[in-house]
Amino acid sequence: MSSPAEYYKSLPPISKAYGTLCFFTTVLVQLQILHPLFLYLDYPLVFKKFEIWRLLTSFFFLAPFSMKFGIRLLMIARYGVMLEKGAFDKRTADFLWMMIFGAISLLSFYLPWAMLLLDVIFGSSLMPGLLGIMVGHLYYFFAVLHPLATGKSYLKTPKWVHKIVARFRIGMQANSPVRPPANGNSGSGVFRGRSYRLNQ
Predict the structure, then answer these.
(1) Residue 127 burial by CB count (10 A; 0-12/13-18/19+): exposed, middle or buried?
(2) Are residues 77 and 14 part of one domain?
(3) Is residue 190 part of a domain?
(4) pLDDT digits over 17-58, tens only?
(5) Any transmembrane segments, and where (predicted)?
(6) 119 shares its domain with 36
(7) pTM for the whole structure
(8) Distances from the Cα of 50 to the Cα of 6, 23, 37, 107, angstroms
(9) Which of 22, 39, 95, 150 has the lowest CB atom count within 10 Å?
């Protein structure tokens, strides 16, 4: 069994640096040298008061020393190292780029616009992305918004599509009519049978 120092030396560079930063940020908070309120991400403080360090420091404070902190640091040590030594072996720059790219979160509503921005950055044609956004908006308007406002639906799924799905038993059909039981009883059949009066 290797010593903790040998294990630390064997860690790949990005996971080692990130885990170390997380550990020492938590130590500084625990020793009350840093306050957690100076670390969290708050966009008004970043853009109005130019506290731009918050864009980075929010990723380094995992939690105060606790079981939660230990589990999070262990996840970095386990899965970060596994990724860096496995899928990103000898590709440190790619792993760092994946970490940076993964740090950016956005609502799914903005994903098409983010993809369009990537098209601009990489010099691709904008027309396919713009057409996709336009078609998506048109579909949403005619399938959801217009029927809610007027009660008329112009984009109903054709019956032949429902028949194909039913024929091949693909997934579930939310719109399929439910047939009543043959004997005319609308119950589920769970409580059928003889009944006995209680408290006699």
Answers:
(1) exposed
(2) yes
(3) no
(4) 889 999 999 999 999 998 888 888 888 998 999 988 888 888
(5) 21-40, 52-74, 95-118, 130-149
(6) no
(7) 0.53
(8) 41, 26, 15, 24
(9) 150
